[in-house]
Amino acid sequence: MRKRLLPIVLAVAFVLLAIAPLFLSGYWIRVLTGVFTMAIVAQGINVVLGFAGYLAMGNVVFFGTGAYVTGVLMVRLDVPFIVSLAAAVLLCGLYAFILGLPILRLKGGYFTIATIGVNQATKEIITNLPFTGGGHGLGLPIILLEPEIVFGLFYYAFLGVMVLSTLLVWAIDRSRFGYALLAIRDGEEAAKVMGIDTTRNKVAAWSISAMLTGLAGGMYAYYISYLEPISVFDITFSVRSVIMTLLGGIGTVLGPILGAGTLEIVTELVWSRFLNFHLMATGLVIILAVRLLPKGLPSLFTRRKGGRA
User: Contact at 8 Å (CB) between 70 and 141?
Assistant: First the structure.
């Protein structure tokens, strides 16, 4: 019964989000756009962490790379946005493939630290390249339309990409590739014994994760029209996306969306009411959620045998 209702619930939710700009203020449109952005990034983390079991805390490197590739191509070479975005996505996938061959041989905390190091190194390179604007930042072309129209266009663009990224994760979840990743997550040595090429599957997972994250970064670059290395390579992007994945349920298809919506909206509400200590209040909410709901928010709606939640 529950499985039959899920498509209906999802369809209603999508329709409500599609018509939301007709009723919500510009402020909440921007908040929801932020939710969609982080949901895409969280889906990227979900592929490599939720399915493969590798904590890529420096995954924001692909967000920043996607943003800067898009921005540099548009500003320096006058390449159209869509072409620049496609190039950014492909380059992020290639970057992850090249990095993944050596780095994904590391395990546990060593891999996590390595990804953070890659992010810091990439940020320094971007900062010291003259054609990226360096520490002064890079301004992108401004869309010559009314702000309300621009915000509406990006709202629907991010909503569409969030849906597509979720469908991609759904397809992975039901594929042999997804089963191979889950086997690696549950026991890499056992997966090798089963004949699974663990290196190839892990590199593929990280490349897909990078492409989703780079896609979000490239769209974000044009959305805000100004880039700084310190902002788009901010490690808190990765931290937030990991928390969202954990809140929504690790390795689930809809978990990143549920986690992104919960964390972003709670953070926004806490910030508006507790301006002087909103970070502490938000942190307490996250700690309580992770402590009380170790399997994520979906555990509230599931029942174990014996009537326990």
Answer: no
Sequence ranges of the domains in the chain: 2-301
Tell me, rounded to whole angstroms, the distance of Cα 281 from its chain centroid: 23
Contacts of 98 (CB under 8 A, 6+ apart): none
Question: For 34-72, what is each residue's pLDDT tens digit?
Answer: 999 999 999 999 999 999 999 999 999 999 999 999 999
Q: Which residues of 180-202 are buried (b: 16+ CB within 10 A; e: fewer)?
A: bbbbbbeebeebeeeebebeebb
Q: With the C-alpha atoms ordered 172, 173, 175, 178, is the resulting torsion angle positive or negative?
A: positive
Task: Return the amino acid letter for 304.
Answer: R
As given in the structure block, the two tokens for residue 141 are 């072309």
CB–CB of 137/68 below 8 Å?
no
Q: Is the pLDDT confidence value at 309 over 50?
A: no
Which H or E element spans position 196?
Answer: none
Instruction: Please return the burial class of 9, using the count of CB atoms within 10 Å of its CB with bins 0-12, 13-18 and 19+.
Output: exposed
Task: Give pTM, 2 decimals.
Answer: 0.91
pLDDT at 220: 97
| Residue 296 in this model has a pLDDT that exceeds 70 | no
Please report, for residues 170, 280, 301, the alpha-carbon distance to residue 297 in angstroms, rounded to integers and kept in the order given. Answer: 19, 21, 8
User: Quick check: 40 and 165 in contact, CB under 8 A?
Assistant: yes
* AA identity, residue 53: G
β-partners of residue 139 are 226
